[in-house]
Model the fold of this input.
Amino acid sequence: MKNKVLICHSDQSKVVGQAIQTVLQLADVDKKDVMLVDHRESLAEFLSGDFTHVIVLDYSERETKNVGGYASWRDISASAAGQKIVRVGFERYEYPDYWMMPFELPELFQKLGLT
Amino acid sequence: MKNIILIVEDLPEEQQKAKDAVMQAGYRAAVTGTLDDGLRIWKLLENKLVGIITDLHFPEQTSDHKDLSDANKPCGLAVIAEATRKGTPVVVCSNINHHFVLYVKKVIEVLGQYHPVGRIPFVMDSKDWSRAVKELIAINNKKEVTDEK
Done:
């Protein structure tokens, strides 16, 4: 099955998303199969596409939980049907699906199961 | 194109059954377990929603602390009332006898009379998600015919 990746970002983290989009080409994921979407539209986009992987940027449990990365992760996780979901942020959490920035490329591919 | 069904149900095993039933019918499921998230997601997906299938008893908002009294609030009534106000197709899927609150059924019947499709189906006694999905699709089709007229 072809890999399709959704990257959920904020205005501030869009550039990080674009960098990941470029890097994913090293894991044979075509640039056109990587979609960048703002957190406000993330659930709608997730439900309208056939994504195999989701990367949620800006994950934080400190700020308001109804917007941003936390809300994207919670909404998409609850509605997911077997997709691989990784949450990304700057804080330290011990979740196996969490990925703390800054990161190494092999770690990214490993978390996504793309190695 | 409207192809998403919003599921409001707080129990993870029931959420999975609901997702399976929705996907089996050829639709996508947006799932949430609280009233606050349900209303927020509803707003986000409004133009893509076929309708809503809701449980009756679930928490108002996500909490880090499990509070059983919060989980037993009949928050589904708020979803039903909002669906009636907006004219959004809605089906209730709940084991009402388990909660000993038959008065809720009467409230839903009354609200159903004010709903644009004239009724709010209630799948009770057991959580039969496949039946709930079929009921929702049926009233959505009826609503589309009514809207066209």
